[in-house]
Amino acid sequence: MKRHEFLRHLRFHGCVLKREGARHSLYQNPANGVVEAVPRHDEVDNRLVEKICKRLQIPRIRSR
Q: What is the DSSP letter of 59?
């Protein structure tokens, strides 16, 4: 999945950028306080996307 599409999904579900790291961006779900790292690659593996969504407790991305 393209990174920009995934970040749009995170923001749509209320997640906010907490800070930028050297190789990852840290996104937080303010509803529960969970912080998760999102790698800075053009493509993010679909299994990793699902794991991040599960940890942040937001709906997974539906395939088109």
A: P
CA-based radius of gyration for the chain:
11
Instruction: Note the CATH number of domain 3-56.
Output: 3.30.920
Q: How far apart are CA 20 and CA 47, in angstroms?
A: 22
Cβ atoms of 59 and 53 within 8 Å: the answer is yes
State pTM to two decimals.
0.91
Closest of 34, 33, 16 to residue 25, by C-alpha: 16
Could you state, in order of their start, the residue ranges of all structural domains in the chain? 3-56
pLDDT in tens, the chain (64 residues): 999 999 999 999 999 999 999 999 999 999 999 999 999 999 999 999 999 999 999 999 876 5
Q: Are strands 16-20 and 34-39 parallel, antiparallel or unpaired?
A: unpaired
